[in-house]
Amino acid sequence: MKVALFIPCYIDQFYPNVAIATLELLEKFGCEVHYPLNQTCCGQPMANSGFEHLSKGCDKNFLENFKGYEYIVSPSGSCTLHVKDHVLGKDGSNAKIYELTEFLVDVLKVENLQAYFPHKVGLHQSCHGQRGLKLAQMSELVAEPYSKPEKLLNMVDGLSLIELDRKDECCGFGGTFCVAEEAVSAKMGKDRVADHLRHEAEFITGADVSCLMHMEGILRRKGSNVKVKHIAEILNSL
């Protein structure tokens, strides 16, 4: 299967190991992975701030770089949702973009993993992934619960998923929201981190590095030994 890998700018700049883990995971499952070299920001920051008309250059660049691919995969729920809803289709393309765990579960139909991570892990189900991409069921709905990231984590040997009090609560990052509403964002992040700490998590994971970055800053300021690790790194660990 031929797959184009889209790596958001903040992963490229601050968390390159997430990109490497994503590449290695896809290759483990037989994908022929291509990385368009001229890719850059998808334009989400401008759109989220009410300036989507200023992201036309980003849109055009994305479409040019990923032209001709049937599958595009990204280790970021928020960027995936933005591209899916606001970018793809503008050029008549039939390309489909998938967040990594979505692609592994829905397209590759992964049923077992050769991964080992002997730690207690808390799963943060970010808003864009859960409510936008439907990666997991929302707890307020009277419906059968499911979680694609959780399904994959349960395949990892040695990993113990902790049970959170409020498993689908926002961490408060929200992209430019954390700049415009700094105090609210910080308090939401502290509450989210506290839930994981109460249940003795050693690691916090999720499908969005932006959320993990936000919580990582809070953990560091607290002097906590709890670490954050993107789900791709855990699924790829041996």
Automatic annotation (TrEMBL):
GO MF entry, a single one: oxidoreductase activity
Protein name: L-lactate dehydrogenase complex protein LldE
Pfam families: CCG (PF02754)
Residue ranges annotated for the Cysteine-rich domain, each copy included: 3-84, 121-215
GO cellular component, one term: cytosol
InterPro entries the UniProt entry points to: Cys_rich_dom
Originating organism: Arcicella rosea
